[in-house]
UniProtKB/TrEMBL annotation:
Transmembrane segment boundaries: none
Signal sequence range: 1-29
Pfam families in the cross-refs: Chalcone_3
InterPro entries, alphabetized: Chalcone_isomerase (IPR016087), Chalcone_isomerase_3-sand (IPR016088), Chalcone_isomerase_sf (IPR036298)
Coiled coil: none
GO molecular function list: isomerase activity
Keywords noted in UniProt: Isomerase, Signal
Keyword Transmembrane helix listed: no
Residue ranges of domain Chalcone isomerase in the record: 31-199
Record's protein name: Chalcone isomerase family protein
Organism: Undibacterium cyanobacteriorum
Repeat is among the record's keywords: no
């Protein structure tokens, strides 16, 4: 009887230990891109988001600019489905080299213009100006800096640099979708990065 009890107790400890290991493994699961780790989950507006995909922005074939990850409430593989989601979203960018805020801002604005039609641009003039002022608030983005663009339906779009909010909150959901199309639109800034953010694991 004592031997049976010991075996039962031992089995319980083994199961508990395995459960703890699995739980810890899930808590610290991450995806690595060019040495930068993206946690597989994030929280925006009190809701848990999943990493939809992450990749690297490369310019002129060999200049590594940054890595970016997209977080959503549910994983999606098409731009249309992502834009249609009404819940919170996050784009997380980690810089791989230093770049002036002027150059970074110009690249953002070009991405907005390239992927928005005339009607969208006319509706978003004020928001675009407000977003442009964000880049004037910091002199440059340095290697390792983390820029997060969060969409929270109850608040709007907020931008954070290394955890500190920069720029104004922008309440228009159409504008956040316009920002998403910088990476996910028909004329995305980097086609390979687009595929990665859409969940391509290849």
């Amino acid at each position: 009887m004592r031997q049976t009890n010991r075996l039962t107790t031992g089995l319980k400890y083994l199961i508990a230990s395995c459960s703890l290991i699995l739980a810890c493994g899930q808590s610290f699961a991450s995806t690595e891109v060019n040495g930068v780790k993206f946690e597989d989950t994030a929280k925006v507006g009190g809701k848990d988001l999943k990493l939809n995909g992450a990749g690297m922005r490369v310019k002129a074939a060999f200049f590594k600019l940054y890595v970016a990850g997209l977080y959503l409430t549910d994983k999606k593989t098409t731009t249309a489905d992502i834009l249609a989601l009404t819940g919170p979203k996050r784009v997380q960018i980690v810089m791989l080299r230093e770049i002036s805020s002027e150059d970074f801002g110009e690249a953002f604005m070009k991405g907005l213009n390239d992927n928005s039609d005339k009607a969208e641009k006319s509706k978003l003039v004020n928001q675009t100006v407000s977003f442009g002022e964000l880049f004037a608030s910091v002199p440059s983005l340095k290697k390792g800096d983390v820029l997060m663009l969060d969409w929270n339906p109850g608040t709007g779009m907020q931008s954070f640099l290394n955890g500190k909010q920069i720029g104004a909150t922008i309440a228009e959901p159409l504008f956040f979708n316009a920002v998403l199309k910088i990476w996910l639109g028909d004329r995305a800034v980097d086609s390979t990065l687009k595929e990665k953010m859409l969940g391509d694991k290849g």
